[in-house]
Design a protein that fits this description.
- The structure is a single chain.
- About 35% of the residues lie in helices and about 25% in strands.
- The protein is of the alpha+beta class.
- The strands form 8 sheets. Strands 2, 3, 7, 8, 9, 10, 11, 12 and 13 form a 9-stranded mixed sheet that branches. Strands 14-15-19-16-17 form a 5-stranded mixed sheet, sandwiched between helices.
- A hairpin with a 4-residue loop joins β12 and β13.
- α11 packs across α12.
- The protein binds ligand 28G.
- The site of ligand 28G has 23 residues, from α3, β3, β6 and β11.
Length: about 600
């Protein structure tokens, strides 16, 4: 893009910021952990826009010790020139007016509405303090704000030999339930942004732990797929293509592995579209059609491949960038633009069929795998039909119900946990019903979920971590929609109880413990909870289960993917990654609970 000789007149001005403080959730989603982190993303989004415009190559996020956040970019610096109509510097308008944007917004990839792209002014409104430094015109400018209101005019505070913008803010603790940021949450989103914006340097540093990351992926979403398939046995090199059509950019990277899970991540303008949408359905349609027609053309015809066969073991990232994205769905993470479906469909169709033509041996490996999936599916269907005809299953709405045994002495009783209707049916028929019980578990149907919050509550020790990892891997592999819908949560029990006379306080991490001890002086006793069992019912309720006081960590697809990856490393057939993992982590294990 070419610098169009920006003049301050180009800014359209909309409403004021009072509304934001009155109803913060309308603008930032919610005021919990999620909303707090959105504050950072909102500021970073602005810097990303500057990178998309072609003027910024590096973005840094710093988590300071006092819960303030600094975001720095090396873009052009927000204009400070006077806006003739408002008689105010452009930066002040950007910082104080809701949804201030340029007339030429269509030329940038800004997102309209929803949780994202509401503008940096929302962050300003919800911050106790905010300082903005701008390097521009060989000068450093500064303006300070509190609760969204300027404390002074824009003033020159120094000289600069480069350009850029730096924003430091302290989220208002009267608005947010908690103003502590998580390094892991921020890094995982920043890593994702680095994948989605190839070549862009994104850094994060936590000053209290000295942890830091530098993300930069020259190969963009290709590296993303590599990351997803890390430690998996892959069947071929990553297939990648990018194409523009009618102002929409489509970027796709995909690679099959030898496992059975499908891992498709879709994005629209760098927003993770968890609920999918037109880009994802265009991708899936093209995939099914392309593979089936390739199979047809090459005389492979014994079974028709369904879309599920075709996606077994597929890891893919689909990223589209478009001018006026429409976000729909419960969490506004479903792309609605209908024209996008056809665009993605035709680009994927072209890209993929070219790839298959040019790599016949890879095509054969992939199609063989799909054929196996199709055969397995067909065999399962036949077995199911057979048992149904035989009337083994009563076809009631609860096929997964326990078939109990009659014996009451547990010492003599057995229970079989059996996968699938058909095996379950045979087991029920074949067993000795006196002492053998059968519990079949069936194909998972998210619509039958009876709980929309499934909370994993484990001890805060190594065993607890293992159980969490195991459960997340299980949910991820066999009940993925539970994770996609955000139904899975982790309970957050406290690590310490600190007593001083009759005051009891709980600390959920070491930093909190230190703070509380400082406040109590010398007269206190401290108990380290080794397990949930050490808490009495009231304590467990107060600290971990009372909805007005508890913190739940919602498990994201990325979290579950990490668990799945860990599981693959530790349990998989590849020895090398496991050896590496043990070598790398052996030194970290210091307080092993045994
Ligand atoms: C570090 C934290 C967050 C930003 C810029 C640069 C310009 C700008 C930002 O313009 C008005 C609206 C859309 C064009 C643009 C500078 C043109 C010329 C800019 C940021 C005018 C605002 N020179 N860098 N805004 N735009 N970085 N980082 O916020 O049409 S915001």
């Amino acid at each position: 893009m070419i610098d169009s000789g920006y003049g301050a007149t180009h800014i359209q001005v909309l409403g004021g910021l009072e509304a934001v403080r009155k109803r913060p959730s309308m603008y930032i989603g919610d005021t919990s952990v999620r909303g707090l982190h959105h504050m950072v993303y909102e500021v970073v989004d602005n810097a990303i826009d500057e990178a998309l415009a072609g003027f910024c190559t590096e973005i840094s996020v710093i988590m300071h010790k006092n819960n303030t956040i600094t975001v720095i970019d090396n873009g052009r610096g927000i204009p400070v020139e006077m806006h003739p109509k408002y008689n105010k510097p452009a930066v002040e308008i950007v910082m104080t007016k809701l949804h201030a944007g340029g007339k030429f917004d269509k030329n940038t990839y800004k997102v309209s509405g929803g949780l994202h792209g509401v503008g940096i002014s929302v962050v300003n409104a919800l911050s106790k303090e905010l300082d903005i430094y701008i390097k521009r015109n060989d000068k450093i400018y500064l303006q300070k704000y509190a609760y969204g209101k300027p404390l002074c005019n824009v003033k020159v505070v120094g000289e600069a030999d480069e350009t850029g913008t730096k924003v430091t803010f302290l989220a208002d603790d009267a608005i947010f339930e908690n103003i502590e940021y998580s390094f892991d949450i921020l890094s995982s989103r920043l890593r994702e942004l680095a994948f989605l914006n190839k070549g862009l340097n994104i850094n994060i540093k936590d000053e209290s732990t000295e942890k830091s990351y530098e993300f930069c992926y020259e190969e963009g979403i290709k590296s993303f797929v590599e990351y997803i398939n890390k430690n998996k046995k892959v069947l071929h090199d990553i297939v990648y293509f990018q194409k523009d059509k009618n102002g929409t950019t489509v970027e796709v990277a995909l690679q099959y592995n030898d496992a059975y899970i499908e891992n498709i991540f879709s994005f629209a303008n760098s927003i993770n579209t968890i609920e999918g949408g037109t880009h994802l359905s265009g991708f899936k349609t093209a995939l099914t059609r392309t593979f089936n027609s390739y199979a047809d053309k090459n005389g492979i015809k014994d079974v028709k491949l369904t879309s599920n066969d075709i996606r077994e073991g597929l890891s893919a990232v689909v990223s589209v960038k478009l001018q006026e994205p429409q976000f729909e769905g419960q969490t506004k993470t479903k792309l609605g633009n209908s024209e996008v479906k056809g665009i993605v469909d035709s680009i994927v169709n072209n890209g993929l069929s070219t790839f298959l033509e040019e790599h016949p041996s890879v095509a054969k490996t992939i199609i063989d795998k799909m054929m196996n999936a199709a055969r397995a599916r067909e065999a399962a269907r036949k077995a199911r039909d057979l048992t149904r005809r035989k009337g083994v299953l009563n076809n009631s709405s609860l096929p997964g119900k326990l078939a109990d045994c009659s014996e009451k002495d547990p010492g003599l009783c057995e229970i079989y946990i059996v996968e699938g209707d058909s095996a379950g049916g045979s087991a029920k028929q074949g067993r000795n019903r006196k002492f053998q019980a059968i519990l079949p578990f069936d194909e998972f149907d998210i619509n039958k979920a009876r709980y929309h919050k499934i909370i994993i509550m484990t001890d805060a020790d190594i065993d607890g971590n293992h159980i969490t990892c195991l459960l997340l891997t299980f949910f991820y592999r066999y009940m993925k929609p539970l994770i996609e819908q955000g139904y899975i949560y982790l309970a957050m029990p406290p690590l310490y109880m600190i007593k001083s006379r009759n005051i009891i306080k709980y600390a959920y991490n070491d930093a909190e413990k230190d703070m509380i001890i400082k406040g109590m002086g010398s007269n206190f006793s401290i108990q380290r909870y080794k397990g949930l069992g050490e808490m009495n019912p009231k304590q467990l309720w107060d600290t971990t289960m009372d909805i007005s006081n508890r913190t739940l960590k919602q498990v994201s697809v990325e979290d579950a993917l990490l668990a799945d990856n860990m599981f693959t490393v530790l349990m998989g057939s590849e020895v090398e990654p496991r050896r590496k993992f043990i070598e790398e982590h052996a030194l970290e294990v210091k307080d092993l609970d045994v």
